[in-house]
Amino acid sequence: MNKLILFLTFLLGPTFLFAQSIKMGYINENELALTEVPYETGAPAVILASSGDSRFFGEMLETTFFYRIKILTEAGKEFADVKIRYFRGENTVENISGVKASLVNVVDGRMTETKIGKEHIHDVEIGDGFWELRISFPDAQVGSILEYTYKKGDKNLTFLDGWSFQRSIPTLFSKYQIIMIPQLEYKMIGQGYNLFQNSENLANNGTFSWTLRNLHSLKEEPFMKNYRDYQERVEFQLSRYQSAGGSGYQSAGEGQGEFVDVLNTWEKLGDDLIEYYSMKGYYRTNTLEKGLLDLDLSIGSQKEKAEKAYYYLRDNLINDGEDWIYPDQTLNQLLKSKKGAPGELILAYMGVLKSQGITCDPVLIGSKGYGRSELVMFPFLNQFDEILLLAELDGKKQFIDLSDPLAPFGYVDIDKHVKGGLLLQKGKSALVPIEIKHTSNNLVFTNVELNSETGELIIHNTLRSHFYEGLKIAHAVKSYEKAEKSLDEMFTSPGEAMTVKNAKVEDLLQEKNYINSTFDLVMPGAADMETLTFNPLRISSFTKNPFTLEYRVFPVDFEYPFSEVYTANIKIPPGYEVDDYPTNENLTIQGSTVSFNYSVENLGEILKVTAKLDIRASLIPVQRYGDLKFLMESIAAKLSAPVILKKVVKP
Predict the structure, then answer these.
(1) Where is the DUF3857 domain (predicted)?
(2) Of the N and C termini of the chain, which has fewer Cβ atoms inside 10 Å?
């Protein structure tokens, strides 16, 4: 089988191996004695062993699940309430049976096992065809071992869930096995460095298995909110099946008919979606009917028309609902209701542009956090969850999004900044690269002076935030306004020694792609002090190192390349002299993906401090984490270092 996904390395702790049984009740002494996971200390609980065994019965896949979990801390007791979600629907698409559970404790040095009765095992309907199997272990304590097993039948043989080796707690042993049958042919979709580099694999006469050990927990880390995109897992999509002259999938021995393709080409997949969108009215060639939109697009260039239509839809239609590739409403319904999900809005926008003769097509993407770090290189529809629009405006291609009601024309939601997507064009749909060009940065200008009239030391700050850095400011301002908080609070840091005053924000994103923020930091009574100690670059978000963990499981994701440039002019007050200031520094890591330079010039009446932080790559591999951590510690020290002025002692 092919390695279909890019696998990003994560750092493993010390090897921790002992034999695990995947049968209930077969618990060994090492598992009973375990009190902490050596490579992830502090974990509240640990999966000692887990397994899945899948095989086909008729027109159903049955998987036997087994889990053995040990509670290590008081917080780990939450894992004594197990919830297993499945989709029953109207036709019992999935069903669960054969549930067994037991609780193991060590009492007076002896292992005791308690069977979990039916009163603690429930099937609960949670709506929209979904159910939950709930298992409670009422007497679970720190040190308890929970075991449970069940069987899940699944009639959906087109997409097989497969197996996720990583969970929210560390896993010492995880094995998945599937027994294929000749009548059904599948493409395996795998993801994760360990799956392809460190797993124990078996492929023998239709039986395939993967075993992984010592896996870190799956959880968010600083500068990595899309950790699910790197989860170790396998899943399957049906490629073709053998028909015996009838419909449906045939079991072994039920005939030797011809194979029928299920996994179509990109072109066929694209045509199917185009037909679906057309049925909803989004592929329109006629002009817009009067009354649907109060929008005149009769004059202007293609880009001017596209911008006018964008702002009309952004500002007059309510953006509400889950971003998804399948619209619930038709175009006319959406335009009349004035409310729709982001995917519906972008398709409506496409309809408006097409009505003006502008060439534009949807691009399906798998957004960040949806579960894929890379595209699957065959027509696997389930990898896509959101929509962009690719338009040709006055001969230039432009990606357009309508996900963010604060974003100007041409901005694309950060979670859609992915490497590629599926461009939908009749008869020629294909994967295309996606590149969103922008120069996001923060420019900080600071002037420091001692006010002779008030005796205050005042640091005047101007922050100019371009593109997506500016959009962050716009969202922060909106949240403070919604909470009826002063903008002064937005620029106040915890434990701030100086007072923030006169904060103002000027939003020029739409006109000039930046936002201007100004505010003052005020130190009252400074004129009476013998020494003045202050940080002229305190506005930086990296005055504290965000990377404090000893090891890293996932790569560092800065979301996009950016820079921060700081310039501070410190006016030396009469009667004062410079006592101390940070030394010059130039720092970088291997490959120069992150660099920093800091310099100070003493110009007599002015002390000039300049610094620049460059993040040239949005994704820093985990192998470079140690270097990055050390670099950011040094950067934080420089950016938080004070300048000290002292009064001149008269002879």
Answers:
(1) 65-216
(2) C
Fold for domain 266-433?
Answer: C8orf32 fold (3.10.620)
> CA–CA distance from 358 to each of 216, 273, 555 (Å)?
50, 20, 40
Nearest to 400 by CA among 355, 356, 358: 358
Look at residue 69 and give its three-state secondary structure. Answer: strand
Residues 6+ apart with CB under 8 A from 617: 558, 561, 591, 593, 594
Q: Are strands 318-319 and 339-340 parallel, antiparallel or unpaired?
A: parallel
Q: How many CA atoms lie within 13 A of 153 on its CB side?
A: 13
How far CA 600 is from CA of 251, 381, 584, 637, in Å, comes to 77, 55, 6, 15
Q: How far is 219 from 552, CA to CA, in rounded Å?
A: 11
**How far, in Å, CA of 545 to CA of 631, rounded?**
9
In a 3-state reduction of DSSP, which class is residue 31? helix
Please, are residues 161 and 154 in contact by the beta-carbon 8 Å criterion? yes
SS3 content of the chain, % helix, strand, coil (to 5): 20, 40, 40
Assigned token pair, 134: 């709930």
Exposure string (b/e) for 59-82, b if CB count within 10 Å is 16 or more?
Answer: ebbbbbbbbbbbbbeeebbebbeb
597 contacts 611 by C-beta, under 8 angstroms = yes
191 neighbors 233 (Cβ within 8 angstroms): yes
* Per-residue pLDDT at 489: 94
- Give the residue extent of every domain in the chain: 29-242, 266-433, 441-647
Tell me the residue ranges of DSSP E strands in 130-248: 130-136, 145-154, 159-164, 171-179, 184-191, 200-204, 207-215, 233-242
Helix or strand (DSSP H, E) at 32 = helix 29-33
Residue type, 38: P
CA distance 110 to 106: 5
What pTM did the predictor assign? 0.88
Per-residue pLDDT tens over the stretch 594-631 = 999 999 999 989 999 999 999 999 999 999 999 999 99
**Interatomic CA distance for residues 98 and 120, integer angstroms:** 15
29-242: CATH number:
2.60.40.3140
CB 267 within 8 A of CB 427: yes
Architecture of domain 441-647: Sandwich (2.60)
Dump pLDDT digits (tens) for 33-64. Answer: 999 999 999 999 999 999 999 999 988 999 99
HEC profile of 247-285: CCCCCCCCCCCCEEECCCCHHHHHHHHHHHHHHCCCCCC
For residue 4, what is the enclosing H or E element? none
Query: What is the rounded CA–CA span in Å between residue 221 and residue 228?
Result: 11
Phi/psi at 233 (5° precision): -165, 165
Cα 107 from Cα 139, distance rounded (Å): 13
